[in-house]
Amino acid sequence: MALKVEMITFDCADPDALADWWARAAGGDVNAVAPGEFVMVSSEGRPALGFQRVPDPTPGKNKVHLDFHAADKEAEVARLIGLGARETARNSFGPEFDWVVMADPEGNAFCVAGG
User: Fold this and answer.
1) Is residue 83 part of a domain?
2) Spatial distance between the Cα atoms of 69 and 99, rounded to a whole number of angstroms
3) Which domain covers residue 45, as residue numbers?
4) Is the pLDDT assigned to residue 1 strictly greater than 80?
5) How many domains does the chain contain in total?
6) Do residues 26 and 81 make contact, with C-beta atoms less than 8 angstroms apart?
7) What is the pLDDT of residue 101?
8) Least enclosed by CB within 10 Å: which of 20, 34, 103, 106?
9) 1 occurs within a structural domain
10) Residue 21 — pLDDT band, cuts 50, 70, 90?
């Protein structure tokens, strides 16, 4: 039996606000399972994103992050910044593959590649 990725869960201070942000950023429907404590963003055909309130944010660098691909990477980065994300770095593996490291409003890392 193989495992199926059902959900990727973020620890956060404000699950309602962060779920709303990710729903606008990546698309999906917000489901406040336990408002203020645990909120999901679901979208057909993709794992759900879960947001659970914790008393203290996890220190240090994320060990897991989301990677996105966009046809127009720079336009998508600009859109996400307009929603409240921030760019933290740019990286590449030579001229053929590059990506932008970003952080959501609570500092969770994610990447946007494109081309």
Assistant:
1) yes
2) 9
3) 7-114
4) no
5) 1
6) no
7) 94
8) 34
9) no
10) very high
